[in-house]
Specification:
mainly alpha, about 60% helix
């Protein structure tokens, strides 16, 4: 394939994407097209058994420590099973290991997967999203009880309607706040959702003023955050019942910022994205919910199956509605070599002849599909993702971005001059409609990042800066809240280096300052953008220098040949 090094926004803006996604257009597509795009989702190989605002920034390092402890506990629980699997695999011949790599002809499903009906999704939402929980799930309950008691508590929380009994060691909330929450829940059960939402807002206001726990001076910021998260979560369910997902969106983000460890916060965020027809983002939220359920000790198989069903439906919906690109997942066991990747591209071109302007296989991706996801296995079945585009420049630009250690939306042609308003509008259109949606789709099956743990979030914050420049404040707030929710979740998803932890803290602090209108200092993500622009500019200069050098060398050789010919003739 052609090199992606010289592709910038200018090429994408000038040529434009063909067939941009629109709900109306996608609704009128041929059924066979949707079926063909679903062909490359593998069949299921197995049965899938202080105040709240201030504490978000302060809790980052504590969350990193607690997430690490949680992962170590899960690892210890699986040590014996993992050792047994390892011994069994060592006893088998080395050829068995390669057997996991299926031939390309057999890797993909030959029959399209049946489309998951809306009724199944509604069943999941009724059972998990709209339930009226009465008890608060605390993020750091382990600080008040022993590890064994914490595990017992979490196990009880998951049984039945996912609500827990009142253990004596759990914090006791303020009596007036308790009354407000009880009244709001009563209205919710009576289907008076607008009244309930108003009462939950009142409860949130009480919480923000310090009326969260019965003993406010003994209350930890983490416990206050968990209570505020509980109320934010309640507001999400109220607004979804009222069919107002736009009002639920920021509340779903904030519930995660305040308590990222609770899996239902992520699933409710997925439901909000589904209502907004943002299916790729819904897929990532559902994937995170399923992983968090396992990480927190969830063992009820039927709950995990419901979450995986939701995750799978969101991926399928995203694929069938997308018109600018198509995808293919290929299972793999070892690192894919260049010849294997070439074969994948050939297989993709045969299956998707309409999407061959540029074909790209993500070599750094460790993609996981809900059909085969088993978090307890070490590691779960992984896939390589191949994407084919109708627009060559979009594909080249995305491949270039995926290999950068410092993610940035940069343009090398005028790196040191500020963007005009017209240029900002064009950049916003390009990023928002042609780049970010594809990146969101890629992340819908990719739990961890390869280069930097904060990749994928930095790009959203850079996009928020563009929105701010154009004074689109509401959209900017939504994007920053979503980015903060992802930042709060990162320590639970993967081990992060000290450098990434410091970057995460800086991003969270700057995002909080931006939302609160504090400080005019340059934001971290804008500094990263500048570094990326300079790197691209220098690379472009070097590339032009090499091309000029080759051209001069070719001219000199040509002149030498002419001289030799002239001498021979004389």
């Amino acid at each position: 394939m052609e090199s992606a090094s010289n592709t910038g926004f200018g090429d994408i803006i000038n040529k434009g994407c063909q067939n941009e996604t629109s709900p109306k257009a996608s609704a009128s597509r041929e059924p066979t097209v949707a079926a063909n795009k679903l062909n490359d989702i593998p069949e299921a190989l197995q049965e899938v058994k202080k105040t709240p605002g201030e504490t978000a920034e302060e809790n980052v390092m504590e969350r990193i420590r607690m997430a690490k402890n949680g992962k170590e506990k899960q690892s210890n629980d699986l040590d014996r099973a993992g050792l047994k699997r390892k011994l069994e695999s060592e006893e088998k011949p080395a050829v068995k290991k390669d057997a996991r790599m299926l031939e390309l002809d057999n890797q993909l499903a030959t029959m399209p997967r049946p489309h998951i009906p809306l009724k199944s999704l509604m069943d999941v939402e009724i059972k998990l999203v709209y339930i009226d929980e009465e008890d608060i799930t605390y993020e750091f309950v382990g600080s008040m009880a022993s590890t064994s008691t914490q595990s017992m508590c979490r196990d009880v929380e998951i049984v039945d309607t996912l609500s827990a009994p009142n253990f004596s060691f759990l914090p006791q909330i303020d009596k007036w706040l308790q009354v407000a929450l009880k009244d709001a829940s009563t209205c919710y059960r009576q289907k008076k959702y607008a009244v309930a939402a108003g009462q939950f807002r009142t409860a949130l206001e009480l919480c923000s003023k310090g009326a969260a726990l019965g003993k406010p001076f003994d209350a930890s910021p983490e416990d206050i955050s968990s209570i505020a998260s509980f109320i934010e979560m309640k507001l999400v369910t109220c607004y979804l019942r009222m069919r107002k997902p736009d009002l639920a969106l920021n509340h779903s983000h904030r519930s995660i910022i305040l308590n990222p460890a609770y899996f239902l916060n992520h699933l409710r965020q997925a439901a909000v994205f589904r209502w907004l027809e943002r299916y790729s983002e819904a897929a990532r939220s559902a994937m995170t919910a399923d992983y968090m359920y396992w990480l927190s000790g969830g063992s009820e198989q039927h709950i995990s199956k419901l979450i995986k069903l939701y995750w799978q439906a969101m991926i399928e919906e995203a694929i069938t509605r997308e018109e600018s690109f198509s995808v293919m997942y290929t299972p793999f066991a070892t690192k894919a070599k260049a010849d294997k990747i070439d074969k994948m591209k050939e297989a993709f071109a045969k299956k998707h002849p309409d999407y061959v302007a540029y074909i790209y296989t993500d070599p750094h991706g460790l993609h996981i599909l809900p059909q085969t996801a088993d978090w307890a296995s070490l590691p779960p079945q992984q896939y390589l993702l191949t994407l084919g585009f109708k627009n060559k420049d979009v594909g080249k630009f995305l491949e270039k971005m995926s290999s950068k250690k410092l993610p940035s939306f940069s343009e090398h042609r005028a790196p040191f001059s500020p963007l005009t308003r017209e240029e900002s509008v064009r950049h916003l259109e390009t990023i928002g409609k042609k780049i970010l949606p594809i990146m969101d789709f890629i992340r819908g099956t990719k739990l961890t990042e390869s280069f930097s743990a904060c990749s994928g979030v930095i790009e959203k914050l850079q996009y928020a800066s563009l929105l701010s420049r154009l004074q689109r404040v509401k959209e900017q707030s939504q994007v920053i809240n979503q980015a903060m929710a992802e930042l709060a979740t990162i320590p639970y998803l993967q081990d992060i280096s000290q450098q990434d932890a410091e970057l995460l803290q800086s991003l969270m602090a700057d995002a909080m300052d931006t939302l609160e209108g504090r400080s005019d200092k340059e934001r971290v993500w804008n500094k990263i953008q500048k570094v990326g622009i300079i790197e691209d500019f220098l690379y472009h200069l070097e590339d032009n220098f090499l091309k000029t050098k080759k051209l001069r060398t070719a001219r000199r050789q040509k002149m030498k040949m002419k001289r030799l010919q002239s001498v021979q003739q004389h």
